[in-house]
Amino acid sequence: MASFSCFNVDVTDGVAHIVMKRGDEFNTMTPSFWHELPEIIHALEAKAEARVIVISSTGKHFTAGMDLGVFNSDDGLMAADGPDDQNIGQRREALRRLVAELQNTFTILDDVRMPVLVAVQGGCLGGGIDLISATDIRYCTRDAFFCIQEINLGMTADVGTFPRLCHLIPQGWVREMAYTGMRLGAEKAKEIGLVNEIYDTQAEMIEAVLATAREIAAKAPLAVSGSKVMINYARDHSIRDGLDYIATWQAGMFQPADMREGMAAMQEKRTPVYRDLKATKKAP
User: Superfamily assignment of 7-217 in CATH?
Assistant: First the structure.
């Protein structure tokens, strides 16, 4: 895979480990970040070399969130509107498109056909909340804290926090975080269901998360992918719609060969061997 300015990527034993590598800069989300992450995810999905994705970080903090340089573009999107400005509408339309592009960077994590696990240490601020809200499973260290930082900067979070976070934790906590800019600590994050587990050190966390990822990677990839699709669909639709969709999915995707292999492996007390998902034509 190509070299990236914001990430290191390793694929081992069916697990893709994406590491934000700008720890000295608190892994702020620079303009390059927003282009590189979708490129990495698209390549992993297209090549089907990995069955699970893990995202982690380096340095003291997971991420300090959006680098303001993203908005300080040549288009002057942060410029104040003047009384005689003839381009207000054009600038507003361009800003809307920019926000939609940023949102899509994390929507890709929601849509990718393999599970995405994230390991958070230290601060997870602003855009970091947008990122982790789009992942399947979240873990953190004991010193981790989570903050909807946008309110402290005079703006409303807009890259995915609210549409997703309200499905992950009680709305009362979403609202308190959103209105006050409070720091939600690791213990409370686990108590309300934002993270699955807390670890004393980052090294311990990474080891445990990669172990969980390898456990997932050992399962039938088609069944795991189908489970992600169904969980996301159930989140976004009614119970009746979800029941109908899983019936339709099974009619088309049910794989007897995987079930036979799974049952045979259980009887023979061995590790099952499943086929990978197929690579797509868009693989570079």
Answer: 2-enoyl-CoA Hydratase; Chain A, domain 1 (3.90.226.10)
